[in-house]
Amino acid sequence: MSEYRIKALRLAKAWSQEQLAELSSLSARTIQRIENGEQASLETLAAIASAFDLSVTELYSDEATSGKRHQAQAIDEKLAKIKRQIDSEAKFYRQMGGYIVTGVLLLLINWLTSHAITWSVIVIAAFCVLLINRGLRTFVFDRHIDKWKAKKTGRMLEK
User: Fold this and answer.
1) Where are the chain's structural domains?
2) Whole-number Å distance between alpha carbons of 26 and 17
3) Which of 54, 100, 116, 137 is disulfide-compatible with 58, CB 3.0–4.6 A?
4) pLDDT of residue 71
5) Which distant-in-sequence residues (6+ apart) come within 8 Å of 67 by Cβ?
6) pLDDT tens for residues 28-58?
7) What is the average per-residue pLDDT within 77-91?
């Protein structure tokens, strides 16, 4: 019996091995090997879990050892952290796009209503400050804060 529930999950969705392989960016042969009981790397399991929209831990059957489940939980935590970072970056880019569109519209309104007063530049400058702040938090500070949290947690556990 396989230590993974991949075949049962695939059949429940009425997917072929080729469809699962395509959705997980793996080869059909890799899916066949795993379903026939061969070991899979955690990266491969992460790709399959993503295709099913599950955690890696949920791919294991009841026969899986606790060590395997512990490794899968570690991968799940790492994937969750990566997803949070990607979501944060996507939010930054959406915000930047909104600021650009709004800035262009404000410049256009300013130009159409009054050539002498450039009030829109003040608003655009405020947008730039907000965007720089968001960019620093997203791409610089969050990573350093995560490292600091890990060190602090480690020190507190040692006590």
Assistant:
1) 6-64, 80-158
2) 10
3) 54
4) 82
5) none
6) 999 999 999 888 888 899 899 999 999 888 8
7) 90
Q: Which amino acid is at 61?
A: S
As to burial, measured by CB atoms within 10 angstroms (0-12 exposed, 13-18 middle, 19+ buried), residue 67 is exposed
Residue 106, exposed/middle/buried by CB under 10 A (0-12, 13-18, 19+)? Answer: middle
* Rounded-to-integer distance, Cα 45 and Cα 36, Å: 15
Say if CB 107 and CB 120 are below 8 A apart.
yes
Provide the residue count of the chain. Answer: 159
Q: What SS3 class is residue 37?
A: coil
- pLDDT mean over 2-14: 89
Average the pLDDT over 85-100 and give the result: 95
Dihedral pair phi/psi, residue 60, rounded to 5°: -80, 140
